[in-house]
Here is the input.
Amino acid sequence: MNTIFDKETEIHWCPGCGNFSALRIMKESLTELNLSPKNVVIVSGIGQAGKFPHFIRSNSYNGLHGRYLSAALAIKASNPNLHVIAVSGDGCTLSEGGNHFLHTIRYNPNITNVLHNNQVYGLTKGQASPTSNLGFKTKVQTFGVINEPFNAPAIAISLNASFVARAFVGDINKSKEILKQAIQHKGYALIDLLCPCVSFNNLNTYRWYEENSYYLNSSHNYRDREQALHVALNLENLALGVIYQNDRPTYEENIQIYDNDTRPLFERDLDRKKLEKLVNSFR
Amino acid sequence: MKSEKNLVLAGAAGMGIQTVESLFVNAAKQSGLFVFASREYMSRVRGGINSTAMRISSRPVRAFKERIDLLIPLSDLAIPHLKQRIRKNTIILGEKAFLNADPTVKFTSIEVPFTDMATKIGNKIYANIIALGILAYIFKVNKTIVLGLIAEQFWKKGDKIIEENQNAIEKGYEMGKKLELTNPILKNFEITKNPQIINDLILDGTQAIGLGAIAGGCNYETFYPMAPSTGIGTFLAQNALKFGIIVDQSEDEISVINKALGASFAGARSLVTTSGGGFSLMSEGISLAGIMELPIVIVVGMRPGPATGMPTRTSQEDLELILHAGAGFFPRIIFSPGTIEDAFYLTQQAFNLTQEFQVPVFILTDQYLVDSYYNLPSLDLEKLKIEKHIVKTVDNYNRYVFAVSSISPRGIPGYGNGLVNADSHTHDEQGTITEDPVLRSRMVKKRLHKLELIQKASILPEFIGNRNKYKILVVSWGSNYYLIKEALEIINREDIGFLHFKQVYPLHAMQIIQYLNKANLIIAVEQNPTGQFAELLEKETHIPIDCRILKFSGYTFSVEELVEEIIHHVDKGAR
Here is the structure.
């Protein structure tokens, strides 16, 4: 499908990389939601997933390693009319940016966070990532990963993230549905997007994900935080679909400056009368 | 009748010394007295020993002096803490136990039973307010003004508290009267008043920077609390809704800088406020501002380092950090206010310059300036301009287009038909990753050229003295301004000039060389151990700076100390 988000450019990923499908899922979802590139900002960090904004036609902010969620939160807060999609990998989000991941969830900005999870470092060539399975061997983790995997969805739910889902790039149509729900959700929406690395991860392959995942059915109550946490804690058999959702107020609502004036910050001007009054209060 | 008195209050944190300081200074000003106050305090919330120094005068006073004419100790630690500054003729008004705290210190003592008096009013915590009443009497500050300020200060706490505090003022006032009768020396504290200043502003450095930011159109402030700059975030938070400012106390300084830059990308006028340690965490973010060419204003309040150092003390140790922070080359502007007025105007201007040149602009200040205040007639709000330097984008807009001026017109997402792409990599005009050597070199040159533009637009140093007669030149930067100015007024020699820099980088070397060349002896004055600014001047002008007066104890220079040091260096240099 051709979309208005297509960009004519050379794509840097390895042939067969899960990111190609992730890109397609994103472009088609945005198009199907009738969003316009000029009102979308793709924000990313560093890593293979971090290059994402260079391959899509929209506004973009490719910032520093680990810091993209902070930038995304601020972009949305400064101009709530923009659709802000924050995309980066498991290393950028959970290792370098772990603290920002935790705290961004607490703020609940109305942004979509697509976490490309391939359970390995791609750009730096094959070291373990925070989500690598225990025992996963690499050139660095020579006797296998010894650190407990970082369970992003479970942590997000425990911090009362307002939307937590998981999707698998091997299933484009279902992933699109999940992503569209995430984009439409009002508040911080996390998608743990399983996205195989064909160059450096020979454990968590397309086939492995197919065999170790399942779709949540209607018996799952995604409004029930305890049930959601129970589902998310299971890393043996990965649940796909919307795991948890709530209706917490967003950061942009909480800061109140848009209550009586919906204009984004760049359209506003200093109220000189108020300034004069404030200065004179020091007399 | 002496035209000036130096008054010091000292006590533990939590005893309300700052309350008395701010009430007294305001009441004195409203009665027509010129005031200056500065604080030194420990990094603790309760206990310890803090002091506040107030100069009350019949003419403008704007720098810290060591001399103490009148001291009110509110704890037994006060006299031992201040003994280097206490002289035989220093009058100390206090509780017997506090007066006797260190028998080796000689002074003129006047006993006042503060605790007994306070207990009679209802609570021993009123000791500080009784002291305020005594001060009001002996400085002949209008009592009605003091009572009014008390009502304002405590209105939230209810009528009973206001009444008791006002009663404490009355009792203090009566006591002042009594003390003056038995100690005629106290009559010297009546200073000629100037009714023209009763409507002056009183601002400290923190408030001046906060107001400057608002006047610069700041609408996004993010920070992590850290002395001595926390107050600026607090000031803006308290005015946030009124001026539509997003104030965000973030999880850490890395998030702080990355949020500020994200906001700036989306068109906000961003500010971050921090100190050296917190700023260290922002280094990578500063280089991101450099390559993304995003506007950002960074206030760094200096305190002694390395690492945690002395959190609540002062220094000028971080110039080199601010000059060099961030990987790779990119231009930046560094201002360092010398006065409260500078703190306001430079901060205001910083917001326009950062938009115009798309480079980080620093306000490099220190604990001494942010915690000092004095009265000033007004701030000129008429001429203030808010420059946005934003363009509405068209189709095929390129964020990093090679423009003749080297400054690519700045679009922001959602404004116009174009797309805005910002990138932390070396990028092409569109903002897409590139490793092309030719493009890379052109982009570096584009940023390098901005430095030349900034240099040309830089604020020149201020010369004080006789341009035709000076042979000795004192050079300094930032908050030393009034300290040196007053020291040189006391030294009173036509052959000594003073060159003060409030823009410390980039420097307009050609203009500065003229001043340096005329001097036979150049003396740098700085609050760091190596003379960081002197080294920068030498590098930029190739003129050696002959000697350095350096202090790095964590405590500000005093006027007296500078008089002595400057005379010493002038005599030595002349030999």
